[in-house]
Specification:
Blueprint (H helix, E strand, L loop, with lengths): L8 H4 L3 H12 L5 H16 L4 E6 L2 E4 L25 E11 L5 E10 L23 H12 L5 E6 L6 H9 L3 E5 L5 E2 L2 E2 H6 L5 E7 L7 E15 L9 E11 L12 E6 L6 H12 L2 H11 L13 H27 L12 H17 L15 H11 L6 H4 L4 H21 L10
Parallel strand pairs: 1-5, 5-6
Antiparallel strand pairs: 1-3, 2-3, 3-4, 6-12, 7-8, 9-10, 10-11, 11-12
Length: 444
C-alpha cells in the first residue's frame, strides 16, 4: 500500500497470482484488525521511548461503502448504519496519533478503534443511564486507557481532542490517570464563579496576535486574535451526582471584534486544559498544540481522497475491510511522515521509522544513480543527513519527477512522492531479486 499509494487491492498487486493471494490474506480468519493495531501500538511505543513529552491526538472519521451496496449484505455485523439515514454500510475509525510535543513529527498510533453500529438499536438503553463503556463516546477514553498500557510510563502524555471529546467523565479519567488534556470546550459548564464561558470572556485580553486562517470554501486570510485565560474549577454534571469537581484552565482566543470580514464567521476557540498556564507563552503553547489537530485531518484526507482511496476498496466482508482500514492507516502515516520530514528538513528522525534495512540499501543505490546522472548539479546532491527521513524522501521525490530545485518547483507533494514510491518499489524488487542481501556494498 505504501508503494502503490492505494488501498484498492487491484492497484497494489502486480500479477493475478498476487491478487488472489491478497484477497485470501484479507479473508483469512487467523488474524484480525486488532492484530494490526497491536503491532502499530508496539511500534509507536518504540518510537516514543526516550522522549519526555508527547501529544496524543484523537478524532473520528466515518467510512461509507454504500457505493458497493449491491455486493454487501445487511446481515454482515461488521457493516452498519451511518450518521445519515441513507447510509447503510458504514464503518468508523478513531485513531490516537502520537506526536512529539517539541518538534511535532508523528510517531505512530498509540491505539486505533474500528467499529460499526448495530442495525437494531431497540434494546439499547437510554444514553443517560448507560455507563461510558457501553457508549460510542467511550472511544475518547479507550485510547488513553490503551496508551497507558502500551506506551512508556516515563513519557508525559497530553491528549488533544476537538469538541466531541469534551465529556466530563473523559476529562476526569484522563486527569486521574496522571496524563493531561487539551480539549475544545463544547459545553458552557458550571464553575464555582458561574458559567465558564461568561467568566473567561469577562477577563481582560492578555495580548493580541495574528493567526493564519484556512477554511474550506474561504480564501486564506490572517486574523487578528486576542488571548485570555482563566484558571477555574468545573463542577460535575447534576446527573453524575454533582459531587466531584475538576481544576482546569480555560484558554480563550477569538478574533478582535470588528476585524472579521463581512459574511465570515469569526474564529473563536475555548480550550480546556489540565496544564498550568501562567503566562502568554504557556497559553500560546496550548493553542499551538490544539492547532496540531490538522495532522489527523490530513491523515484522514490521505486515506480517503488524496491517494489511498479506501472507499473504493473492493472487499465484500466487513471483517476484511476493518483489516484493510488498519493497514491503510499505517501506509498513509508513512507517506505523511516522509513529506513532513522533508518539508521541515527534520534530520533527527531516521529513515528506519518507515523503511527496512534492505530498503535503505535500495535508497543508497538510487542515490548513487542520481549522483552519477548529474554529479555537479543540485539534482545529484542530496543535502540531508544520510539515512534520515528527509534524505530518503528527497530521493523518492527525485525519482518521482521532482527536480530538486525548490525555488523553481517548490516542495514535492503527495502525488510526486506517490510516483517516486512506485519507482522505488520497482527498483527494490529488481535489486533484491538479482542480488543477495549485502547491506554495506552500496553505501557511500
Amino acid at each position: 500500500m505504501i508503494n502503490s499509494q492505494s488501498c484498492v487491492i487491484n492497484r497494489c498487486c502486480e500479477s493475478h497470482k498476487d491478487l488472489i493471494a491478497a484477497y485470501r490474506l484479507m479473508r483469512n480468519d487467523s488474524w484480525c484488525a486488532d492484530d494490526v493495531v497491536r503491532a502499530m501500538s508496539q511500534a509507536c511505543a518504540s518510537n516514543v521511548s526516550g522522549l519526555s513529552h508527547i501529544l496524543l491526538i484523537g478524532d473520528t472519521s466515518e467510512l461509507s461503502f454504500d457505493n458497493m451496496s449491491g455486493r454487501l449484505s445487511k446481515d454482515d455485523p461488521d457493516f452498519g448504519p451511518g450518521t445519515e439515514s441513507s447510509m447503510e454500510f458504514s464503518q468508523f475509525v478513531h485513531p490516537t496519533l502520537a506526536v512529539d510535543a517539541e518538534s511535532y513529527p508523528p510517531l505512530g498510533f498509540a491505539h486505533v478503534d474500528i467499529w460499526s453500529r448495530k442495525r437494531d438499536r431497540a434494546d439499547i438503553p437510554d444514553r443517560h443511564v448507560r455507563p461510558l463503556e457501553q457508549k460510542e463516546s467511550f472511544k475518547w477514553a479507550s485510547g488513553p486507557e490503551a496508551a497507558d498500557l502500551t506506551l512508556p510510563r516515563s513519557v508525559r502524555k497530553t491528549y488533544v481532542y476537538d469538541r466531541e471529546g469534551d465529556i466530563y467523565e473523559v476529562i476526569s479519567r484522563i486527569k486521574k490517570s496522571g496524563s493531561d488534556l487539551v480539549v475544545r470546550s463544547r459545553v458552557n459548564r458550571h464553575t464555582e464563579d458561574g458559567l465558564l464561558w461568561d467568566s473567561v470572556r469577562a477577563c481582560d485580553p492578555a495580548c493580541t496576535y495574528e493567526l493564519v486562517v484556512r477554511r474550506k470554501g474561504e480564501p486564506t486570510r490572517t486574523a487578528l486574535m486576542e488571548l485570555r485565560w482563566l484558571k477555574t474549577t468545573i463542577k460535575s454534571p447534576v446527573r453524575k451526582g454533582g459531587r466531584e469537581s475538576i481544576e482546569v484552565t480555560c484558554v480563550y482566543t477569538r478574533e478582535v471584534p470588528g476585524t472579521t470580514p463581512d459574511g465570515v464567521e469569526p474564529v473563536e476557540w475555548k480550550l480546556l486544559t489540565t496544564h498550568d498556564v501562567g503566562n502568554v507563552k504557556e497559553a500560546m503553547m496550548i493553542i499551538t498544540w490544539y492547532k496540531l489537530r490538522w495532522l489527523i485531518e490530513e491523515l484522514f484526507s490521505v486515506i480517503k481522497s488524496r491517494g489511498m482511496d479506501v472507499g473504493e476498496a473492493q472487499l465484500e466482508s466487513g471483517k476484511a475491510m476493518k483489516k484493510l482500514i488498519a493497514l491503510s492507516l499505517y501506509a498513509a502515516l508513512a507517506t505523511m511522515v516522509a513529506k513532513m520530514a522533508l518539508d521541515a528538513s527534520n534530520e533527527k528522525m531516521g529513515a528506519n521509522v518507515i523503511f527496512s534495512e534492505e530498503q535503505i540499501v535500495t535508497l543508497h543505490v538510487m542515490m548513487r544513480h542520481l549522483h552519477k546522472e548529474s554529479p555537479k548539479a543540485k539534482g545529484g546532491r542530496n543535502p540531508y543527513e544520510k539515512e534520515s527521513i528527509p534524505w530518503a524522501a528527497w530521493i523518492i521525490a527525485r525519482m518521482g519527477g521532482w527536480s530538486g530545485y525548490e525555488k523553481a518547483q517548490g516542495r514535492p507533494g503527495y502525488k510526486t512522492l506517490s510516483k517516486g514510491l512506485d519507482v522505488f518499489h520497482t527498483w527494490h524488487l529488481a535489486r533484491t531479486y538479482c542480488d543477495p542481501p549485502q547491506k554495506d556494498v552500496y553505501k557511500d
